[in-house]
Design goal:
- It is a single chain.
- This protein is mostly helical.
- It has a domain of about 80 residues: Helix Hairpins.
- The protein is built from four helices and two strands.
Length: about 140
């Protein structure tokens, strides 16, 4: 049995240990965010140079840069939240379920979007090409995203 006079000291020790541990984790999480966002910016600059060097279409370049930067930032945020002790598995399950629901809701639009990206990347048609589609003959005058 613990003497009654020791309870305040034990309680204070427990609370101060918890606050110290949480404070350190909070500082580490803030550091992860700062360094991670800095790395995301550097990654975007490097990727931009690589894509420009390979002469990738500007619209595809913009899409790839934005997509990769956002994915990098999301990973950094998830890592920082995990360092704070937040349960990430339920968050990722929720994110996955939301992605599935959105994907199913926009299946037609997302399919068209994916086909548009493939047209931009693979470039099966160029301006000036003559094409036959559904029995109609035509000339490609413009390709837009």
């Amino acid at each position: 049995m613990i003497p009654r006079s020791c309870l305040p000291r034990i309680l204070w020790k427990t609370v101060s240990d918890y606050l110290l541990n949480f404070g350190v984790n909070l500082l580490v999480a803030a550091g992860i965010l700062v360094v991670g966002f800095w790395l995301a910016k550097r990654f975007k600059k490097t990727l931009r140079m690589v894509l420009e060097k390979r002469d990738i279409d500007p619209s595809v370049r913009t899409f790839l840069l934005d997509f990769n930067t956002w994915m990098f930032k999301i990973l950094v945020i998830i890592t920082a939240l995990a360092k704070l002790g937040i349960e990430i598995t339920s968050f990722l399950a929720l994110l996955s379920a939301a992605g599935l629901a959105i994907g199913m809701a926009f299946s037609g639009a997302l399919g068209n979007f994916a086909r548009g990206i493939l047209l931009l990347v693979l470039r099966p048609y160029r301006v000036g090409d003559v094409v036959i589609a559904k029995g109609e003959l035509g000339k490609v005058t413009d390709i837009q995203c």
